[in-house]
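Tokens for chain A. Residues wanted.
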């Protein structure tokens, strides 16, 4: 089969790496890909959200199956476009992808499904949003409605900072149209978990649990990022909590989507805050998490193509997922300055190490005259597995410490909470 993977991050390198193990695939493409995907797939120079050019390429190359990594092309309706052209593709339709495309839509679905979530209010004008802030209890959370490349959420205890964020967002200055509607919500104090299922619209299978580290610095300090590291399984997701998430979050949401004429086919990612043993939904994403995909796929023992095809053929109930017993950890090596401004184009040394049970997934990298150089904020996801999480962490840091590029920075405390449990 000829398979096309869309995207260029660590998640897409992990998807390409896993799909390359499928005996049914003889030709693998990645658009646009990175220096890591180029090792196992043929990179195609088309941006992930250029859906018209992707369609043209898939038709010309007679691609049998397309896998979409990031949210932007899904929210743009790439699945509807490919399917209406008779092409098979894995991911949610444009209307189902609104779960991530609009936080206001997502909250409406949560309320409709009776799911536990933070109390919230929607605002479109700055005067009433600021009046609300004057009377509100801090800390609180402010969220831009639309896609904002992971930067549209502010968690703060500082009223002045909250007011600036509200004004900059609603005026369009900070996030363009995405920020012209905002949600102000109650701060939930607990432990986060990423709970991801693969759904065929009706049935679903749960992937292994994972936990991400959103803040840029050790001890969860500094601004939010796309994720600075992750590990799987996440001990916070006990068998009891797993059951609660299935029954109180995943199943009611899938039913609401089905009843509303937008059945959810694809990876559904619930960002959960566990407060006193109870799951609250922070958000839904319509794709695999990044970096969660790296440790999760590192532990997955089946054929990823079988799972994705079963979802798109509306037949996932026949799939039984199997996971390595080992724990896996991913440490993100980022460019100096990320998630703010950073420079690119620095050569990366130390990619040739051979440490057993480790894999360096590429994210923001590219080949420049045969040399791998930095080309994004999150550059690499160093991933390792071992029988204990402690040993996996040790291996991952051994590998990370052997990699160098100018101004590299990474957290030193990935998975510490899981080790202490
Ligand atoms: P979101 O994109 O909605 O998941 O928000 C990004 C991150 O902000 C989450 O992963 C949490 O770390 C944090 N966050 C979002 N909503 C809340 C909340 N209501 N209470 C506490 N933290 C939150
Ligand atoms: N790591 C969080 C996300 O993928 O949204």
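Reply:
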């Amino acid at each position: 089969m000829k398979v096309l993977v869309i995207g260029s991050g660590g998640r897409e390198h992990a998807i390409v790496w896993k799909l390359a193990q499928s005996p049914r695939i003889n030709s693998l493409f990645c658009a646009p890909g990175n220096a890591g995907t180029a090792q196992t797939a043929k990179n195609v120079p088309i941006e992930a959200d250029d859906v018209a050019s992707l369609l043209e390429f898939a038709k010309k190359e007679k691609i049998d199956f397309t896998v979409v990594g990031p949210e932007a092309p899904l929210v743009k309706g790439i699945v509807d476009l490919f399917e209406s052209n008779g092409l098979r593709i894995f991911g949610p339709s444009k209307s189902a992808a609104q779960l991530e495309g609009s936080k206001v839509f997502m909250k409406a679905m949560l309320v409709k499904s009776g799911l536990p979530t933070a109390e919230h209010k929607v605002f479109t004008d700055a005067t009433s949003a600021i009046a609300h802030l004057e009377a509100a209890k801090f800390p609180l959370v402010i969220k831009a409605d639309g896609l904002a490349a992971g930067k549209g959420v502010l968690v703060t205890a500082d009223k002045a900072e909250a007011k600036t964020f509200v004004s900059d967002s609603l005026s369009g200055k900070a996030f363009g149209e995405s920020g012209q509607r905002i949600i102000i919500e109650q701060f939930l104090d607990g432990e986060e978990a990423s709970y991801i299922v693969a759904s065929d619209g009706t049935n679903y299978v749960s992937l292994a649990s994972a936990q991400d580290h959103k803040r840029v610095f050790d001890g969860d300090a500094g601004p939010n990022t796309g994720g600075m590291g992750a590990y799987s399984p996440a001990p916070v997701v006990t068998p009891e909590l797993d059951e609660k998430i299935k029954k109180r979050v995943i199943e009611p949401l899938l039913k609401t989507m089905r009843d509303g004429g937008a059945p959810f086919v694809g990876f559904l990612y619930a960002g959960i805050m566990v407060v006193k043993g109870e799951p609250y939904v922070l958000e839904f994403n319509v794709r695999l998490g990044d970096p969660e995909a790296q440790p999760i796929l590192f532990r997955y023992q089946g054929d990823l193509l079988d799972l994705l095809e079963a979802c798109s053929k509306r037949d996932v109930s026949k799939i039984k997922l199997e996971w390595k017993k080992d724990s896996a950890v991913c440490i993100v090596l980022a460019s100096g300055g990320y998630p703010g401004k950073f420079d690119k184009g620095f050569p990366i040394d130390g990619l040739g190490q051979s440490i057993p049970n480790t894999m360096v997934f590429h994210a923001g990298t590219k080949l420049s005259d045969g040399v791998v150089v930095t080309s994004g904020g999150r550059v690499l996801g160093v991933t390792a597995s071992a029988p204990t999480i402690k040993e996996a962490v040790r291996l991952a840091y051994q590998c990370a410490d052997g990699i160098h590029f100018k101004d590299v920075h990474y957290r030193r405390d990935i998975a510490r909470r899981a080790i202490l449990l």
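The chain has a mean pLDDT of 96. The longest strand covers residues 265-275.
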